[in-house]
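Notes, Module 5: Reading structure tokens.

Key idea: the token line is not a picture. It is a compressed description, and you learn to read it the same way you learned to read a sequence, by spotting repeated patterns. We will look at two proteins. The first is printed below with its tokens.
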Amino acid sequence: MLKNYLTIAIRYIARHKVYSFINIAGLAIGMACCALILLYVQHELSYNTCHSKGDRTYKILRQVDANEGRTFYPSVSGPFAPEFLKDLPEVETVARMAGYNSTFWAKYQNKPFYHIPEHFFVLIQNFLMCSIFRLLQAT
């Protein structure tokens, strides 16, 4: 029975080449798009899974309204963290982080003595260790 179905399918594909190509290409593109969407969703759901309270972890964004439209930046000023803790009792803790994407030299008595590599983060207060490793892997 399976051999009969396969023979009919091959004959149909040979007889209607353009129509078969369109159907097979559409099926392949649809399956590829489905796989890419599933990979994207899996990647988005993988954040903060190493922390027991990962579902309660949030990132603060700064909203800037300009003539070009509304833009969100993942940065706020330094004094924001203590004020955030003071004003909102629901917040348990705040971790601050500063990221740099260039080369720095540390100086001591006007002499450069240490080269800090590109792509590094300065972590302030109680930052989650699993998030540090995720950030370092992303760079």
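Here is the second protein, with the sequence above and the tokens below, as before.
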Amino acid sequence: MKTSLHIIIGILTGVLISTLIWLAATPPRGEAIKLVPPPTQVPITVYVTGAVAKPGLYHLRQDSRMNDAIEAAGGFLADADKSNINLAAPVKDGDEIHVPELLPGLSIGGTGLLVNINTATEAELENLPGIGPTLAQRIIDYRTQYGFFKTIDALKNVPGIGDATYAEVKNLITVGP
């Protein structure tokens, strides 16, 4: 009886070892997973000229927009004509981005755009005839203190803006959107 038990244990051990050897020798099923490094983004080069703080060549990410290029060049100058610049437009390698300047003596209003005195920056207000840095700051201070202008006539409430200055700007300003 002991002999038959030894034979059975021997047979089972042999089958187990044979199965392990067969499993180890069998090639794996399916294809091996290949690890590929993520693609390295090659920067694009754009040339920014005109009314920006630092014109020149700039290297940007491939998914960059016009706004990224303008910011890389230090932003718009005060006399930049932004009316035809689409800041959301994508840029591509080799693009030249030219930001034109307003013509000397030409206000934003002279380009056909009205200056919103409720939202205009100091630089935009200074483009209006008869409005220099001091009056532009007074306009901003006034709307900060008293809220938005309800009509363009309310501009005459700003200290230093009289009938003559108002007459120069009334057709160039708005309080609406």
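Summary for the second protein:
- The chain has five helices and five strands.
- Residues 44-99 form one domain.
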